Structure formats: structure tokens, C-alpha cells
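tool_call predict_complex ligand=6-phosphogluconic acid
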Amino acid sequence: MNGSLVVVDDVAAAFAQLVVDRTAASKAPFSLAFSGGSTARECYEHLAHEAESPIDWTRIDAWWGDERCVPLEDPDSNYRLVEESLLSKVGPLASVHPMRSDVSDAADLYDRLVRSAPPIDLIHLGLGPDGHTASLFPGSEALNAPVHRFVVSNVDPLGHNPHARLTFTFAGIANCRSAVVTVAGASKTEALHRVLDGDLSAPAAHLANEDLIWLVDTEAMGSRSAR
Ligand code: 6PG
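tool_result ok
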């Protein structure tokens, strides 16, 4: 497995502290790419509470690492998830870049937007029970996206994950200065062990950012929880 493995009791709290520390250490504007999923929602709700003091959100540029191709107000939208759990609670940001899917060339537009901006400082990713991260699903076309593409459209060929998607590619994730993967709960143990063992059939095992942090809880670690 690439990166640093950090086993914690509370993934959401550890994530919030990481973001507070990283943004505080940066004097320039700081760009964050958000994830979807229930673990991410808990992380952002925790971050919103942490943000009562140390984060100057007017310095933060918000991006998304993946999105479902639904209206932004749809209950399944990752934009709505972040809006509800965080953005609605912390006041104005420097910029907010939702992944809009209501245009036919949505992936091309977001790809150009991301590539025209400086590298994203920190991308937040989750881990699915099937080993996916962002919307890079096992056996999906996006796993083999051209190396010059940072964002593509994708679907789960096995149908385990709903909706057509927009997603960062491995190259797009690797272009981010840092990546943090949050993994919580026993349902992720098998996928996490595959990643720990370097099983490349798990897309998340391909993550290779120089600064890559795995924040995992003891439930997800399962039998390997020995610290
Ligand atoms: C999505 C997410 C996805 C998520 C993982 C983990 O749009 O669904 O980006 O990659 O992070 O599936 O989700 P849970 O935390 O809900 O298990």
C-alpha cells in the first residue's frame, strides 16, 4: 500500500483536525476537493463544528472529486451533501466549483477547469466495499482513462453504485498535492485489507500521491488492528 496508514478511533475528528492543520500551515489560498458518501458526510459535519474558530473559509476553493449525474439539489448529489453538511454552515468561500452534469460535455468542461487551475492542495477520497475510490469502480472504463485526462465520465459496470458519474481519474488524483482517504466501519475491512496487500484489482490500491494519508478506524482494520 502506498502512503501513510493512521489508525484512529474517530475518523471524522481526525479528518477535521487534518484539514484544520493543513489549511493553517498554508498562507496561500487552499483548495479542497470533496468526496461523497456517508463517511464524508460525517467528516464535513465534524469539520463544520471545528470551523467555529481556526479555518478562514474565505481562503478556501472548493472542488469535487466525483459526482453523480443528477441535479445539484438531488438527495444523491455530492454537491448537496457538502452544501448541507458544511458549506451552509461556514459562510462564504473563495470559490465553489460544483461538478455540473446538466450539459452534454460536463466531463470535458470540468477537466479543462481543473487543468487550468493550480494543483488541488488536498483531495478527500472514500473507499467503497468493492475497493472503489471516487467513482473509479472495478472494471470501469475510467480506470484506463488517457493520462492527460484529469476528469472523465464513468459508470459502475457491475451496477453496485447508482447513477452515471463524473470522476477524477488516477492522473487527476495524482496531480493533487495531497490526498486523504477516510475509511470507517467493518463493512470496509475486506476492501481495506486488499489495499493493504497491494491488490490492484481494488482501484483504491492504485492511489500513489507522494503525500497520501489513510485515516482508518479500528473497526475497518479488523484483525489487523494491532497498533
Ligand atoms: C460517492 C463517493 C464514493 C464514496 C465511497 C464510500 O460518490 O459515492 O465519492 O467514492 O466515498 O463509496 O462511501 P461511504 O462512506 O458511504 O461508505
